[in-house]
Amino acid sequence: MTAVVDEDTRPAPLQPRERVSLRSRITLLAALCVGGAVALVSLGAYFTVYRGLYQQVDDSLNERATALLRNTQAITSTRAEIPRVFLELTDIQFDVVDGNGQSALGMTVEHPRVGPEELKVAQGLTPISIRTEASTDTRILARPYPFLDNTALVLAQPLDTTKSTLAKLAVVLIVIGGSGIIVAALAGTAVARGGLLPVQRLTAATERVTRTGDLRPIPVSGDDELSRLTDSFNTMLGAVAESQERQRRLVADAGHELRTPLTSLRTNLELMLASEAPGAPALAPQDKADIQVDLRAQLDELTQLIGDLVELAREDAAPTVREHVELVEVVDAALDRARRRAGEVTFEVRLEPWHLIGHAASLERAVLNLLDNAVKFSPPGGVVRVELRDAGDGYAFVQVADAGPGISDSDLPHVFDRFYRSEEARTLPGSGLGLAIVKQAAERHGGSVFASRSADGGALMAMRLPGAPG
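Above: the chain's sequence. Below: its structure in token form.
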């Protein structure tokens, strides 16, 4: 059987949450902050005035009671007459009651409502009582009446005027508070609109970069946090533009360097294939052997060039792992690899302990390139001098000197450029990228590279790296 599902009972699809803009959040935050502050101040002001007004009523009742007790003569036991001073209480209610709540006045007057608190005063259990009677909306004071036994003087004052004043105050505070919230919201909107203009420019710039790839910097005005953010974004754009330019140069230079061996490789292959076609004249054995030697050399050159390109591209991306590096161990590892392919060339080594924070594999590759370069230009039986020494200024030098033909004055400024090869080096194997990898590795570690002539007349290559001895 197929189950039938009522469409009305299916859960409604979740609707995407609406995003609240930063401007709206700033406006809401300003309104909430001001509203909270106004509410606290208004509540404090209201309760302060509330207590003050009620204290005034209480003080007035106490003063009237004191004056009455001071100027009143005793009421006779027949309760037939009201003292004349009582008749002056035209704005408040009054009475003299005994412990049972009965009035001690001989005439009918508008008596205040008597409760248990007033009876306790009349019975001598409480020296004084003051309270608010909610049913009549009056403030009632009771004090012992000294002219009759077990009696209390009771005065009651209406709170109409007091409550009217408090109601007007509440209206004023609400109006002022509401106006303050509205002003705060408008001010928050204005501040958000003006303060977020740099953010809007940054947003437009990122959208422009994404859409067009245009990496022009954004105009900066002011010196606040958003201006510094714009400066940082411009710095990032500059770094991206520089990286793209390096990539373009690398691709262009690599294409130029690859074109020559590929053309030669293709020519030799076509020649061999043509000689094997039916009816074509066969190549002489010596010519065929020469072509095979050329093919192997060209394949080796392509392999080395591609390897150097991969290494250079890897160096373009800063190493993600940085660790404590003992530079002596790095140089020793590079020497072990260099000795295996150095032939008759020997190494004279002098190393001082030095350590830094960096990428060991990248530094080892750079030192190995320096050693291979020195071996390539050294004569048979030559000596390559390797030295690691403290420069005394928080840097150390890794120097590699050979006894080869040296570097001409015109070539010295360019030996670390990508794909640069001097006239003497064009007949030797190599891609022209080894020393560029050395320069890039040194700069990645906060150092630099130098080239000059050695004491033996050959080349002296050096890396200057930061760190500490020992």
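The radius of gyration is 50 Å.
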